Amino acid sequence: xxRQLNRLAxxxxxxxLILVAWMRRIKIPLPQGWDLSFLPGFHAVLNTATAMVxxxxxxxxxxxxxxRHRKAIYVALSLSVLxxxxxxxxxxxxxxxxxxxxxxxxxLSGEERAAxxxxxxxxxxxxxxxxxxxxxxxxxxxxxxxxxxxxQVEAHKRMARWVWPFWFYVAVTGPLVYxxxxxxxxxxx
Length: 189
Hints:
Blueprint: H1 2-25, H2 39-63, H3 66-93, H4 110-115, H5 117-149, H6 153-181
Helix pairs in contact: 1-3, 1-5, 2-3, 2-6, 5-6
């Protein structure tokens, strides 16, 4: 069973990477009257909730409460999957939002670039580390889950010790990126 689940994890990871690549290139017009501008805030809430649940899962496992740990991980994984589906949907329909793009034209003018020059480097570091670690960690989150789900407790523990901090970092930095980008979303972002 673990072998089939590992294959499924690799397949899902590949599909997610393909979707993320496509969402940057393919833009689908929204139907008349539809508005997805609320989704970035929703994504920040999902990431924040994931971070909180991951902390609970860690606390439960440290206390030896494996049943609550397992339930918390199910919730964290569900929140992460919901985030991923919503995030990809948003980016298929909505244009990229650039940090510092006050007029929302999708281009950073010299004035706009100068206005955020002191914070743009920090924003880009946070964003790029968030994206890179999200992409790299995703399959390992699944593999760690599979180890626990299939009763491979020692293998699960070994993986979780290094996967959990990266998952937590991604969950925490998502809302930080949102808060930094929020002034540039436009109306309701």
